[in-house]
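**Backbone shape codes:**
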Amino acid sequence: MIGTLNEGSLHAQIKAWYRRPGDLVEHPVDRYVIDVVRGETLIEIQTGGFAPLRRKLERLLGTHPVRLVVPVPLERRIVRLSRDGEILSARRSPKRGRIEDVFARLVSLPALLTQPGFELEVLLTHEDEYRRHEAGRAFRRHGWVVAGRSLRSVEDSVLLATPAQAVALLPKLPDPFDTGELARAGGCSRRLAQQMTYCLRAMDVLRADGHRGRAVLYRRSSASSC
């Protein structure tokens, strides 16, 4: 029996997995409560979008090195629950995640990796997503709404500290290229390819280089090798 799900359970589980001896947890710094403080580094764990962190990061990066830790699920198991929290069914989602998915969240703060003292650590995870049926909601999922997520395991982590490390996630491509070529080379959606180019342009490691028909062409800038 799952019981009552805590909406923040994934966040709490990642924080417990991430902490090390000597870390300070839920520690106040400059009027903010920081998830983990490790030496001089302030570590924030974010399981949702980045936009709500804008003001907090701007304030903290003025005085401290900051690491933002974000989970990207490589694999997700969909668990359907009864009203009482009993498991009705469990199946593996056919959708597979990838590290490049982090760009879909980075679009709200696309130049974040250009900030001195900032690091982005991507945890490649396996998760459970719990759903409950609520009539009249989640039309596309036939009333099954997300009730919470939980961590099953962490397969790997990738630390991105510079824009050059972010642009290195691009697959092998000719210069210049368009987002259609990026999507095909990387085996991703056109939308994700567009989000990647948007962020990398904001980081100044990719620049527009004319058009091919209606498609914008992109080329790696000299900053991409720094």
User: Anything to note?
Assistant: The helical segments are 9-18, 54-61, 103-106, 163-167, 179-186, 190-202.
